[in-house]
Write the structure tokens for this entry.
Amino acid sequence: MTTRQVEAPPISALRHKDLLGISDLTADEILLILDTAEAMREIGDRPIKKVPALRGKTVVNLFFEASTRTRTSFEIAEKRLSADTLNIAATASSVVKGETLVDTALNLEAMAPDMIVLRHAASGACHLLSRICRAGIINAGDGMHEHPTQALLDAFTIREHKKSIAGLKVAIIGDLLHSRVLRSNVQLLTKLGADVWVSGPPTLMPAGIERQGVRKTTSVDEAVEGADVVMLLRLQIERMQGMFFPSLREYFTVFGMTRERLKLAKHDVIIMHPGPMNRGVEIDSEVADGPYSVILEQVSNGVSVRMAVLYLLAGGAEHETAV
Amino acid sequence: MKRLFKGGRVVDPANGRDGLFDVLIDGDRIVRVAKDIPPDGAHVVDVPAGFVVVPGLFDMHVHLREPGQEHKETVATGTASAVVGGFTAVACMPNTTPINDNAGVTEYILQKAAQAGLARVYPIGAVSKGSNGDQLADIAELRAAGCVGVSDDGRPVKTALLMRRALEYTAMFNMPVLEHCEDPSLKGEGVAHEGYHASTLGLRGIPGVAESIMAQRDIALAELTGGAVHICHMSAMESLRAVREGKGHGARVTCEVAPHHFTMTDEALASPVSYDTNVKMNPPLRAAADRDEMLKGIADGSVDCIATDHAPHHYDEKKVEFDVAPFGIVGLETCVPICFDRLVHPGLITLSRLIELLSVNPSRILNVASGALSDGAVADITILVPDLQVTVDPARFKSKSRNTPFGGWQLKGGVAATIVGGRTVYMNDAAAGAGRFK
Ligand SMILES: [Zn+2]
């Protein structure tokens, strides 16, 4: 693997019980996860896509927000590692009966799961669970805070195309304010030495974002110029129109990613989107489906990265079972 | 029974005193404060060295939660908490269930306070019926029942017009309108100060101007009407600027700052514990520049009072996601140690100025006859120990709730005893010699 020579982690295990956010990881730990994910991907290419690494371990996917994509990705990752998995969707659980998050978690704890993969609408929900649960908590998206496995799979995808992340110009464009994908990516990319630019309407710019080591601009052209990577963020259009920007049409005109605009980027730029996309709003279909797009690769890399995270948190290198 | 507190330092700014004096009490009254008062049959209490005798402290912004929210606090537990904190009096906000918008609720609270027999309770009535901001509550009736001010606390007075009417109407009783300053649209669904920390943690922000815009509205209306507006729990530097300017123009505006707003900042959202719901309050902990400005205002006199915004919440209510936890922390039992440790000992203000902030000015703003150790005055007295070492232990709070971010803080300065109407209602075992005030 060529990337190993460039960025090889000097460590072999994570120090953590949980993955709450990229903010808790060092650059070395990020690289360890990415390298482990490369080994994991090879499993997906085998005729029998299964290894016994997590046999006998129980993983609960506790999703308080609907997300077919992320939940399915975790589930496939867990099954490939032979874990016993249990899916709990908030609407189907006792949450509707007014049980608190803490109660739900404590009831789950009574069944002694090894890991809980949590998706929740409140920022910090995973931190709350990590303080009361023995099980390891993996953050699958908490409110507007973080979505660490998304940023890891994004980094994995970037590394595949660009070898190293250090020194790349990465432009992240869209609804920055409400995006957990943004926050995780900013943490990760700055830790690995990328030159990160963020752009979008000033009404959707998080306060103090520049203190996180990124450059902000309302000019998409400026952000895209010379970029190696252009990452678009989804707009929650239902709740935004009229207050954050005047109309979808105007948004697309000022901030939308078009083929024309993309000409400002490097000739080998890659286009990313965490999905699901609003075609014709943040991204033109020509770009989404065009030659620079790696959007579908992101989806398939998600499984490898989540396998790596599960494997490393469940015991990692100390685990006797070879991958 | 007569008691003579002998030889202690007395700090009584309303009477220009700071020195060694004797205080003679007979029943519920102060007879005389002077040097070398002969015992004349009175029970003599030798005030231990290092103790200071001051007029009873008055927290003009607390939530006693009764009626209706007794799982959080009651008048009895809230006033027990008050006297441990050195407060001989509190003013309680009307956002109970039901709202204190009629004489019946006011009388109920006062009856509970009399039964508890601890700190004095001065109810604040609602500005509007149900605090809904639509029609004025029966303010004269509330006043007759014992309310000393009006407020729709928990929310701002809804419209500028209603605020104008409230200021005009209350002016006839010389009674202030206490305002929770917040522009609802700017606050939105915010849960923390808008800035770097909320941003990084993905928490919705509330900018400082959400507060100051409303303060500016109210100060302008105070000027227009001649009414008195009091800005509650001020947190933003922009609000303080507006208050200073208003005072400069002669507007009848006063303001209070809570201990958490002059000690902590929004950094507490991230560490030592991230998303700790005990640092969630409204207004939120703000930036360091705001905190420093509050300290400046306290030192230069533009801040009138320190009030705790004591807001008890049940353990279960706070043990939830940050977004859904209720706003507020308890404050009565930590206020005095924090004020000594952060204001007096570092030399920011004198003890005399602290007594103005905690006793003289709240009494003046609410037109309550307290805040001075005058001959013939009611004997509401607090005994302080500036050098007492205090470690905040929420498990020992007398409040029904323990929602505080100050647990484990080591502070210098505390309370030895609290005397209400000549009766000692609290003695601190940790202060050697406090037992003499029995
Ligand atoms: Zn308030």
Q: What stands out?
A: Residues B 153-154, 180, 232-233 surround zinc ion (CB under 6 Å).
